[in-house]
Amino acid sequence: MSDTGAPHLVLVDGSGFIFRAFHALPPMSSPEGVPVNAVYGFSNMLTRLMREHVGTHLAVIFDAGRITFRNEIYPRYKAHRPEVPEDLRPQFALIREATAAFGVPGIELDGFEADDLIASYAQSICTNGGHCTIVSSDKDLMQLVGPCVEMMDPIKQKPIGPAEVEAKFGVPPDHVIDVQALMGDATDNVPGVPGIGPKTASAFVNEFGSLEAVLDAAPSMKASKRRDALIEHADDARISLKLVTLKNDIPLPVPVNDLAVQEPDMLVLGDWLDRMGFRSIRHRFGLGDGLPLARATAQAAARAAALNNENVAAPDSEPARVPYGPYEIVTRTETLQAWVNEARKAGVVAVDTETDGLDPLRAQMVGFSLTTAPGRACYVPLRHEGTLDAPVPEQIPVAQAIATLEPLFTDASVLKVFQNAKFDLLVLRKAGAGAIAPIDDTMLISYAQSAGEHGQGMDELSKLHLGHTPISYDDVTGTGRKRIPFAQVPLDRAAEYAAEDTDVTLRLWQVLHPTLRTNKALALYEEMERPLVEVLASMEQLGIRVDATELKRLSDTFETQMSVIERELHQLAGREFNVGSPKQLGEILFDEMSLPGGKRGKAGAWGTDSSVLQDLADQGHELPARILAWRQLSKLKSTYTDALLRQMDPGTGRVHTSFQMAVTSTGRLSSNEPNLQNIPVRTQEGAQIRRCFIPAEGKVLLSADYSQIELRLLSAVADVPTLREAFAHGEDIHARTAADVFNIPQEGMDPLTRRRAKAINFGIIYGISAFGLAKQLGVSMGEARAYIDAYFARYPGIRDYMEERKLEAKQHGYVTTPFGRRCFVPGINARNAAQRSYAERQAINAPLQGGAADIIKRAMVRLPHELKRAKLDADMLLQVHDELLFEVGADQAEATAALVKRVMEDAAELSVPLVVETGIGANWAEAH
């Protein structure tokens, strides 16, 4: 029942959700080989509803067939809808099976659409003083939204109320049908009035009040094509109104009282989930052991209580069902020691730190939490402050707490589990902790098997795999100006938030770690991702030295150059204007100078992004070309010279970037605060910035860079004999490509011809189109297409590789690198052609970019050990895509370069040699 005691009916638009899930989720098959992606999405949604106990009554509404009473009104209604995809046909029956397995009524009625049934049930519940939630985002149902009816988007999990409806249609819900009747609907073959779009339709309805009023007023309107269309197609509009208006008075096939929410028969549901192969749903939401939900939860709670009394962890604690909390606050060393003993006895413990900032190298640890079993957790405050309502709490001194934890951290028989371990290891290290091993990281466990499929944050993983929404940081600290430091959060609330984090982390580990083997990601995680945590933590902690004097001089130089360009721009424009204002720039370019190609945005301002300016510059217009130069200098100044000075540690003269391990869909690392991976490589300004990165006194910088690694991977995985041969013999690969494709000798080759071959070689890696290549080379589309056709004719294996990757992505939703990493490709089956085309280019490139990332990660994991074994005084400082940067003693630079080159080139065995180029210098630019 709702809070008021009134019934709350939840109606699931089954027919609408089937199609949406089918197109949103990658292809999947049951153990019997039947397509089940739509069934899986539908089952996930039902599980969420059942677990969250939404409403007092629940039903799923289906379409009974295509022919309804609307076809009698208008025979062509929905006549040109495409045939149902072959992979979707067998899923309709399975989805009806799903509703039965979950114990939810599935309702349909011949002659009527699901939307009509939903309207009639909504009307019935409202008439009887209840409330209705329609689980759908279908625009046709938005006419029903009102005081007692709301909608809920099943994918986005966002409510749709009157405000959202008005934002979409431009009118309140009760006038949606008037707008729909005027504009028609090509999808359903609703005729409407030709030439009347959504904006015009809503404007007419807002002005005149209804469809009929608009039609009545048409003859007196000012002469126009719209006026004529309204008069000529008035009958079509009236027919359209009948088609789009939902019937809310059809007899209900099942009375509302019979739709009361029931617990599913867990044995039946478990068997059905097994037959479908939906193990993740069983583990994620706790629906798999044949126990009714209430009884299972009670039993789990009893076990948790027993554990609290016995201080031991259960081997099988059913992580999804055990209650979250209550948790213990630990303020005495003896109590913390008891928790340490319990953790060592359990053999696994989840650990999380709470800090007063997001930079682990500067933040102070405010407290930490431990979890030894689901529901069994504690929070240890260390630096909490008092509040107006409470004095400073008793707390363990930080050094004493770390000393108590040390035996646990160094115990090789106890696994320490973190979520984003690198952050916590750096925080604990700053607080005085030594080495912590062995560790697991739930973020990386997930990332190793689902890069690009979804985010890897704890909250998202918890919702996805545990069906639980954790307390958010904003919940306990507030937001905006009202946010308070975590150290000032009331201790009971802080403990509830912090301890829950480790509770969730341990449950995620229990659910996700077993799937590493089934998803064939165990080796990737164990040999690459997990050991890289310590490597990157050491790199971040060491940082890289910068020349503050040179940075300041360079910043002043950029500012002077920008001022010179600004004066030039004012002369070119014929007046002064704010160069940094896109609005003023747009007015100069398109209003005053009348340059071609201008487009206004939704707010009415001219678009002046880099692509617009580059197009104008390519046409020979000087002002946009100089704007691009000014923007480049402005970005370099703000992003690097000024930012590096702010971010430099004044005590060490070093900056400490943070490497993000689980952000990209390909396995590549990214860096931020500061981002050192986007410094321009081939520009003079980029080289000037690199000169500001310097080694410690008595040392030099060593750069080691993989040469053409993605091209080498392509020639290996696509099995292109001529390219493999060229790489094996150390030939100029671009000259060889030009000779093969254009059938000309390499000797005396025109540099322009080589440049074109180089553009094709690198463009192919990214799925370049004829349009893109034409623009890059400054040739016609036909000429660019001829180049690409000639390339594929000479290297057919590359075309085959590209088609195979696209097919792999369409079938599985992901592609794999040569080393087994899954790179998910969202949008690969999208209806939108542009979105699908972009995803196809991703599918082509991801195995190559991801394969290169895997190779350099392998090298990074091995290098610290090899350097130490060789007794070389060298530290790895940075990874920038295919390059590693080291700080090394000047007298050992050559020996270090030789060792680094060997380890990097031996990081993977391919059918082509890996080649690493090294350089040594007094700054990064010299070394690079």
UniProtKB/TrEMBL annotation:
SMART domains: 35EXOc (SM00474), 53EXOc (SM00475), HhH2 (SM00279), POLAc (SM00482). It comes from the Bacteria. GO terms for molecular function: 3'-5' exonuclease activity; 5'-3' exonuclease activity; DNA binding; DNA-directed DNA polymerase activity. Pfam families: 5_3_exonuc, 5_3_exonuc_N, DNA_pol_A, DNA_pol_A_exo1. Its EC number is 2.7.7.7. It catalyses: DNA(n) + a 2'-deoxyribonucleoside 5'-triphosphate = DNA(n+1) + diphosphate. Keywords: DNA damage, DNA repair, DNA replication, DNA-binding, DNA-directed DNA polymerase, Exonuclease, Hydrolase, Nuclease, Nucleotidyltransferase, Transferase. Residues 327-517 form the 3'-5' exonuclease domain. Residues 6-262 form the 5'-3' exonuclease domain. Belongs to the DNA polymerase type-A family. NCBIfam families: pola (TIGR00593), PRK05755.1 (NF004397). Single-chain monomer with multiple functions. This is DNA polymerase I. It comes from Acetobacter estunensis. The gene is polA.
